[in-house]
Amino acid sequence: MLVLASRSPRRREILQQAGIPFVVRSLEVDETPLPGEAARDYVTRLAREKAKAAAPEPGEIVLAADTTVTIHGQILGKPVDAADARRMLQMLSGERHEVLTGVCLRSASRMAEDCAETSVWFAPLSPQEIEDYAASGEPMDKAGAYAIQGMASKFVRRIEGCYFNVMGLPVALVYRLLQDF
What we know:
7-stranded mixed sheet; elongated
């Protein structure tokens, strides 16, 4: 039995669309980056901590993931308010950024982890576009303050890598890890 250690509706939707059966069991984990922690290390550590928090029972495999956006070496997590969302969107405007998702699978006797990376190029955004999108509320629970599958889709010029990674779960990577498990 696969146990998804996440409350993310996007992760649930991705697994359902891929036909991977699962149940949800998640616990809160402190998502504060450690001083000087690189983005790849950060998301992989959080995925591992989430997998440990949702301790697997015999016969279960826990799947945990964490996604962040990074630009110019800066980690952009979920915005704390609309002003923070506007700040992040201004940083992303007209720029290339990376979306990283750490993935961890854990059973009672085994653990596997990996990290997916997708490059995303945003079109230049006008101050009004930034204001309107931030005011929509959509950015509020999203790393980097945007949802590629939502209203922000019109800002994305191109991506290189896994689209589902940008949504929050690199499903092909998860499937490969499950097969190897």
